[in-house]
Amino acid sequence: MAHNESWDENYGEDGVPDGSNIPFNVLAGNSVQFDYDPVSHLLTIATIADLPILTVAGSTVSAVEGDTAINS
To answer: CA triplet 40, 46, 51: central angle to 5 degrees?
Structure first.
């Protein structure tokens, strides 16, 4: 995790300053979610299957699984 678009202040694996890169893999078609804690400097990386897409009357509506999708 680099701060201020520079490597002058950066945190790697386990939040270590100038630490190792954090390896991760992403399956084709999945998205990546990055969560960073600025206090502990820990970066959590998760891969997420793409959101479901509903097609209704030719319009496309995207919704988060479990949420309500409205085609207005």
So the answer is: 135
